[in-house]
Amino acid sequence: MFMDFLRQHRSGASHGEATEALQALVAAVTEEKRAGKLTIVISLRPLAKGDGIETSVSIKLAAPEPVAGTSIFYPTPSNDLVRQDPRQQAMELQEIGPAEAHRGLA
């Protein structure tokens, strides 16, 4: 009865919306590796006159959102933010070629 009702409600639009929402939820949960929720609420209200029942369907999707990346910055004495720690001494590095990298290894 439930699926029959959903397929007939609003000429099948509620069933289509629920199907699309479920597919979107599966995609988001698969991508984000976090939980999500799909809530379908069916509301019924008797008509003021006659024996009919007014029906409405509400579909709420709570899919996991992507988490924005973070960056590390360091404060300076003047309260600016910089990428390099101002208290850390810089190391003098130089690039060496492949022949020099293996010298002395035998």
Q: What can be said about this structure in brief?
A:
This protein is α+β, with helices and mostly antiparallel strands.
Task: Estimate what percentage of residues fall within beta strands.
Answer: 15-25%
Structural class: alpha+beta
How do the SSEs run, as a string of H and E?
A: HHEEEEH
Please tell me how large the radius of gyration is.
30 Å
Spatial strand order of the main sheet:
1-2
**Major sheet size, sense and barrel closure:** 2 strands, antiparallel
Helix content, binned percent = 25-40%
Tell me the span between the first and last alpha carbons: 79 Å
Shape: elongated
| Total strands | 4
Please count the helical segments. 3
Mean pLDDT: 90
Q: Runs with pLDDT <50, length 5+?
A: none
What does it look like?
Strand 1 (37-46) and strand 2 form a beta hairpin. The N and C termini lie far apart (79 Å). 2% of the residues are buried. The radius of gyration is 30 Å and the shape is elongated. It is built from three helices and four strands. Helices cover 29% and strands 23% of the residues. The strands form two sheets. Strands 1-2 form a two-stranded antiparallel ribbon. Strands 3-4 form a two-stranded antiparallel sheet. The chain has a domain at 2-62. By secondary structure, the protein is an alpha+beta fold. Helix 1 crosses helix 2 (13-32). The longest helix has 20 residues, at 13-32. The model has no long low-confidence stretch (mean pLDDT 90).
